[in-house]
Structures are given as C-alpha cells and as structure tokens.
Write a structure and sequence with these properties.
This protein is an alpha/beta fold and 462 residues long. 40% of the residues lie in helices and 14% in strands. It has an eleven-stranded mixed β-sheet, with helices on both faces.
Length: 462
C-alpha cells in the first residue's frame, strides 16, 4: 500500500477536509482508516467504543480508494470515517444498546436504513460508540463498558453527557470527524455541549428509523456530531438520501431570535449565562432581532410532566417492563433500571393526555415560530459535572440528570429541530453552549442559518 505524508495529521480534521485530501490524492481512504484505528488504539480513553468494525472498515476504505483513483467518488464524503451510536444495526453484528443483556441477541441481518445511506455515500464505518444503557440518561455513565471521559477540564474527570456519550467524545477527541447519535430528550445536544462540538438534532421523522433500537418511538430522533456545520449539512443530505446538499448560507440580518426568560435560565451557572449573552450580543450585532420574554408553553410542559408523568417514561417502561421487573434487573445499570421502573403505575389516561397535549402545543408553537425565527437558550444550564461525584451519590445523580435534560427535552416535546454551538469555556476549562431551535420540519432553514451563525456564535469559543 502506498505511504502518504505523516505530516498530514488526520486527527481533528473535518469530514470535508478529509474528503478533499483523499480526492486530491494527498492520502488514501485506506491510510485514513488505518490511522484512525491507530489513534483509537493509542487513546488513553478505551471506553469510547463498544465495538470496532475493522474488517468492514478496511473493505469499505479499499472500495472508496478505488473509486477515488478512478475519478468516480460516491460523494464528497467518500472514504470519510464515521462512528455510530450503539443503537444502530450494523449487518452481521449484534446491537447491544450499551447493555450486556443484549450481547447474546441475534446479529442484525442488515444495516439500519441511515447506515446503508451513508455507506452508499462512501463513508467508512469505524465502529459503534458507547452510550448510556438503553439511552435513558443525559449524563453518559455506563457501568458495563466504562464511562467515556470528557476530554476537557482540569483536575477530576468529567462526564461526557448522554446518552450518546461515546459518539460525542470520539469527535471531540479527533478520533472521527463525524458520529451519529439519537436524541430523545437531549442525547445529541447535551453531549455536544459538554464536549465543545456541534450537535444537530433533526426534526421527528426526518430520517428513516428502521434498524434503530427505540427508547421512545414518539420522541426519538437522530442527530449528527461534527466539528463544523458544513459537515453536518453534507452528512444530513446523505442521510436524507440526496447526493449533495441544496442549502445556501442564509444571512443573520433580520432573523428573529426569541430568548425565553422562564425555565431555561433557572439555576444557570454564571459562565454559561455569561458566554450565552456574549454570543447573543454578537448575533444582535450581525443584525439579529432579539426578543426576550416568557414562553408559557415551557411552564405548561413542566406542569404536564408533574401532573401526568412523561411520554418517554411510559414508552421506556413498555419497552423494558420484563427486564426491569424480572431477574435481569440486577444486570442493568441501577440508575437506569430504577428510572424505567418508576413509570409502572402511570395510567394509560395520563399517557393519552400527554400525547394530546403535545399535538396541541406543537401546532401552537409552530404558528408562533413561523418565518425566519429561532429560539435561543443555553443548551445545558451547567458545565459537565464530576464523574466520581455522580457515581457516589444516586440522589445527586437523579437531580443533576433532570437538570441536565431540562432545557433540551422541551424541544423534543415540541418536535423542534436544534443545533448546539460551543460558546466558550468556564473557569475550569469546561465548554459552554448555546442552542438554536426551529419549528418542526424547518431543518433546512435552521441549517442554512447555522451556516452563518457558526462563526458568530463561536467567535471566541475556539
């Protein structure tokens, strides 16, 4: 195999940068795959992946290299490595959902639809990333495969965010330019925020969900981790089945940015609020129109949850009832098992009331957010907490988990799409983030605006 310049460091490169380097003959797809596996092997954190698909990756990289040599690339992403959360079916291997209970299940007979689409675009499957067991936490701890460590901060190890923990850490550490996760209550946007990278949550039903292990069929969506919005746009197009994106950067001038004054700033860490306000000021300087005020719908969602419970709790319990109430419960993460079991007494009438309220509120906010309008808030009200502190205290874990999920879960309930951007660091060197959200099915507009917003929001975050 031809040797390519060692001085071209692939770590930390964007997907489009790697694609251009391979297309230009600077290095081959095979070289990129081998260097990726070497970087993973050398990484101090060996809890990022639950499975490496080396044989598959080498075969896909070989095919990509041949296409590129012949001048017929499958897409701009041909030969680019990708990591999948351990919820996506990969042909020939078992989907374990971050759980030892699933390891004896039959292997998947075929790739999940979105996996097949990105394979068709030439992307090279490196493996599956670690996650919270059954995707049921915003923190990212996993007692079975280990907890991926947040690469930021000084001193004690910090949580990666969940549930797509390994996916975010793989991108943040430069081990892959792109990773795909799922988001039911914040599981893409939260780990993106904690790890200082871009996290895009799509609207419900934007992508096919077959072959993706479900937590809550009503709320589950997919999302993309990357270092740039440009990468997100290209990967999103491929996941939608398009050969290339058809988006253009949309100017910020005249954009309505609604900043809620209720719920989302409660008990907000000073550095998070400070960096959020600085980013907002830069957006306003670029021509955005900032509108501050309470969003009554947020208070209503919290009241509904207090009165009826949650949709995700009901659907997670339905999916895992036999596991958490049987002998297998002792083999499940105690925090996950306890949280799932809490929904055992939730009446069907409450679940139906939540579904009906959700439909009503989606219609209501959709009208409110019509046109060039987004909602801006801190992605999470705090930076990544200590792993050891949460491992030692289950009550503290429960409180911090709910606070971590508080802002992002509002968007899932309302069907919003969203992009989390890094905004800077706190005093301990931990990332803070800003979330821009759009009404359901306005993903193209949000991504177009994000192409312009990225450099403004992240002006001092790098």
């Amino acid at each position: 195999m031809t040797s390519y310049p060692a001085r071209f460091d692939i770590r930390g490169r964007s997907a489009l940068q790697l694609g251009a380097a391979m297309s230009g003959g600077l290095l081959s797809a095979e070289e990129v795959a081998e260097r990726t596996f070497a970087a993973i092997a050398a990484c101090e954190d060996q809890a990022i992946f639950t499975l490496l698909t080396a044989d598959r990756a080498r075969a896909e990289a070989h095919a990509a290299a041949r296409r590129l040599r012949e001048g017929r690339p499958a897409s701009l992403l041909d030969g680019v490595p990708i990591v999948w959360k351990d919820l996506f079916d990969l042909e020939g291997v078992t989907t374990t959902a971050g759980s030892r209970l699933m390891e004896a299940d039959p292997a998947a007979g075929k790739d999940a639809s979105v996996v097949a689409r990105l394979k068709g675009a030439g992307m090279v499957c490196i493996g599956r990333a670690n996650m919270t067991e059954f995707a049921y936490s915003g923190i990212g701890l996993n007692p079975h495969y280990g907890t991926p460590r947040n690469p930021h901060g000084r001193g004690e190890a910090r949580v990666p965010g969940g549930s797509s923990s390994g996916s975010a850490v793989a991108v943040a550490r430069g081990l892959a330019p792109v990773a795909i996760g799922t988001d039911t209550g914040g599981s893409v946007r939260i780990p993106a925020a904690f790890n200082g990278i871009i996290g895009y949550k799509a609207s419900t039903d934007r992508y096919p969900m077959d072959g993706v292990f479900a937590l809550s069929p009503t709320l589950d969506t997919l999302g993309i981790f990357a270092r740039t919005i440009e990468d997100v746009v290209v990967v999103d197009a491929a996941m939608c089945g398009f050969a290339a994106p058809d988006l253009r950067k949309e100017p910020i001038d005249g954009l309505r940015v609604i900043v809620p004054t209720n719920v989302v700033f409660d008990d907000c860490q000073a550095a998070v609020a400070r960096n959020f306000e600085a980013a907002l000021a830069r957006l306003e300087k670029a021509g955005a129109v900032i509108e501050r005020g309470p969003m009554a719908v947020f208070d209503e969602i919290l009241a509904l949850s207090s009165r009826h419970g949650t949709i995700v709790a009901a659907e997670a319990y339905a999916a895992h009832k036999t596991r958490v109430e049987g002998p297998e419960a002792a083999r499940i993460d105690r925090r996950v098992a306890k949280r799932i079991a809490l929904a055992h007494a939730m009446p069907m009438v409450d679940y139906i009331a939540l579904l009906q309220a959700r439909s009503r509120l989606i219609r209501q906010t959709g009208r409110f957010l019509a046109g060039r309008c987004v909602v801006a808030m801190p992605t999470v009200a705090h930076t990544a907490p200590s792993i050891d502190a949460l491992e030692a205290d289950d009550e503290l874990f429960a409180r911090i988990n709910m606070k971590t999920l508080r802002n992002t879960m509002l968007g899932n309930f309302l069907g919003w799409c969203g992009v989390s951007f890094p905004t800077g660091m706190d005093e301990a060197g931990l990332p803070t983030a800003l979330l821009l959200s759009g009404a359901p099915q306005t993903d193209e507009r949000l991504l177009s605006l994000s192409l312009a917003a990225q450099s403004i929001v992240q002006e001092s975050a790098d």
